[in-house]
Design goal:
- The chain contains seven helices and eleven strands.
- The strands form two sheets. A six-stranded mixed β-sheet has the order 7-8-9-5-10-11, with helices on both faces. It has a five-stranded antiparallel β-sheet with strand order 2-3-4-1-6, with helices on one face.
- The chain is an alpha/beta fold and 247 residues long.
- β8, α5 and β9 form a beta-alpha-beta unit.
- It folds into two domains: 130 residues, P-loop containing nucleotide triphosphate hydrolases (Rossmann fold), CATH 3.40.50; 92 residues, no CATH class.
- α2 packs across α3, α2 packs across α4 and α3 crosses α4.
- It binds adenosine-5'-triphosphate.
- Adenosine-5'-triphosphate binds next to β4 and α1.
- GO terms for molecular function: ATP binding.
- InterPro entries: AAA+_ATPase, ABC_transporter-like_ATP-bd, ABC_transpr_TagH-like, Bact_Polysacc_Export_ATP-bd, P-loop_NTPase.
- This is ABC transporter ATP-binding protein.
- Pfam families: ABC_tran (PF00005).
């Protein structure tokens, strides 16, 4: 059964070389959603997440909301295995793909085809799976003969087409996103939107962080509001989004 379980998870970023003496000797809540704490004379830490306990089950489409610095990206990175919590336990059952950075693994000097392989490996695809999907990814990218030349010669739109086509070629059980990926010119955008909708439909658990009420209301069946790295509210989208957006 696909599931995610977080037990008392905290993520702290120690700040070395910080002007710690200029920070007051107490917890500082900044105007945004972040928190800086002076632990001792020598140690200043920024809290990303604080004591988060959370269970996500199959079928749930989770939306994350919160002010800048409230911990949304930190949580997505913990779920993607990029950050190991400073405290607490994370247990993830199911094949998980993160679309937080779709250009991760891309080598500017490698060709389009080589980059499809590199990115495929980064996402945990086997060489055989990559070979099976190669034609479909190449066709979806619409890059034609450009796939034989180095990535660095592509326009920024072409680079995104390649990263998008490759990153959305797998069907994970758990999908982690921080935006609705939509890229390219009008023609590509239409196809990209459809591909994203199919990907989200096929996934068993979605975790999507966004500042867009419309996007969260359209795609989520549960919304979690983070503030200062903690869960402030967790419930039905209508209820949480109304409370967060204030209407
Ligand atoms: N690499 C890092 N080093 C130090 N502090 C960090 C790091 N990454 C995040 N933080 C801190 O952790 C807190 C949470 O940041 P995070 O990026 O998770 O917020 P967010 O909710 O995604 O914000 P936004 O809406 O602006 O993207 C912030 O106070 C931030 O300063």
């Amino acid at each position: 059964m696909t599931s995610i379980q977080l037990q008392n998870v905290s993520v702290e970023f120690p700040i070395y070389n910080s002007p710690s003496r200029s920070l007051k000797n107490r917890v500082l809540s900044v105007a945004t959603g972040g928190k800086i704490e002076r632990k001792s004379d020598r140690l200043v830490v920024v809290s990303g997440l604080r004591d988060v306990t959370l269970t996500i089950r199959e079928g749930e489409r989770i939306g994350l909301v919160g002010h800048n610095g409230s911990g949304k990206t930190t949580l997505l990175r913990v779920l993607s295995g990029i950050y190991i919590p400073t405290h607490g336990e994370v247990s993830i059952e199911g094949h998980c793909i993160s679309l937080i950075n779709i250009s991760l693994g891309i080598d500017p000097d490698a060709t389009g085809y080589e980059n499809i392989r590199l990115r495929g490996v980064m996402m945990g695809m086997s060489p055989r799976e990559i070979a099976e999907k190669m034609d479909e990814i190449a066709a979806f990218s619409g890059l034609g003969d450009f796939l034989d030349v180095p990535f660095r010669t592509y326009s920024s739109g072409m680079q995104l087409r390649l990263a998008f086509a490759t990153s959305t070629a797998v069907r994970p059980e758990i999908l982690i996103m921080d935006e609705w990926l939509s890229t390219g010119d009008e023609e590509f955008k239409g196809r990209a939107n459809q591909r994203m909708a199919e990907l989200v439909d096929a996934t068993k658990i979605l975790v999507l962080a966004s500042h867009s009420r419309q996007l969260l209301a359209a795609n989520c069946n549960r919304v979690i509001w983070l503030e200062y790295g903690r869960i402030k509210m967790d419930g039905a989208p209508d209820e949480v989004l109304s409370a967060y957006f204030g209407c």
